[in-house]
Amino acid sequence: MLRSITICLLFLTAALPALAEEIVLKDGTKLVGHMTGITSDKIEVETSYGKVQLNRADIVTITFADNSSAKAPDVAAAKQVLPKMDETLTGTQYLNRTAKFSLTLPPDWLIDPNLRNSPTTLAGLSSKDKMRFAMVIQEEYPGSMDSYREVTMLGARRTLSNFEELARSTATIDGKPAILVFYRGVLQKNNNLPVEFLSAFIQSGNTFTKITVWCIEPLFNDMQPTFEKIVNSYRSSGHITADSTKP
């Protein structure tokens, strides 16, 4: 059972799942596609006919595809050849030499390669009992921090039923502006398992790093201080020193 939970959580942390949205405009027009960008007044949608930009004021409703419509393309994506990572976990210190960053983890955590499901996923980590997880994703995005966060949360909303954003705050991580988002949802395909998450979004120019930590909801309150320490421990290459690689 724990193994199946791990694999399911792997897919829900993907930045943009392959499900589509149906958007209805004030003039009755219906569009089906994937939202790829959001600003204060416009939404960019990728359709089968190309990308279109819609004025938010013209949108009547946005309907998200039912979670049960998720199909095999997600599995195929998980099996693609991924770039190798030069990574080590010594004591509580995780060091990724390929992507040039470090994290401080609780004792007895492991590198979990099963959580790496796309080229943008730099690290997958989990507790020894496979009940607590962490993932680091990094990608280029031309929009603002708020836009990137909104697109990512739309991905989570499509994947989770009963999605709820619980809290949001600004922070500074690795000397850079960041946003912390707490949210939760239910995994219908795993006996309606309730799961709670913390995602930290860190911006450096057009590069966005997302650190997500999660566990089943009954464990989250006890884990929250530890999860916050994990995301705040992120250090990119400019802040990694010889001493920081020691346990």
Report on this structure.
With 247 residues, this protein is an alpha+beta fold. 19% of the residues lie in helices and 45% in strands. It contains four helices and 16 strands. The strands form three sheets. The chain has a seven-stranded antiparallel sheet with strand order 9-10-11-15-14-13-12. A hairpin with a 4-residue loop joins strand 10 and strand 11. The longest helix is centred in the C-terminal third of the chain and has 16 residues, at 217-232. The radius of gyration is 18 Å and the shape is globular. The model is unreliable at 1-19, 66-78 and 239-247 (pLDDT under 50).
Distance between the termini: 32 Å
Overall pLDDT level: 80
Provide the succession of SSEs: HEEEEEHEEEEEEHEEEEHE
Q: Report the portion of residues in β strands.
A: over 45%
- Rg result: 18 Å
**Count of runs of 4 or more consecutive helical residues:** 4
Low-pLDDT ranges: 1-19, 66-78, 239-247
Shape: globular
Helix content: 10-25%
> Strands across the major sheet, in which order?
9-10-11-15-14-13-12
Strand runs, count: 16
Structural class: alpha+beta
Largest sheet: 7 strands, antiparallel
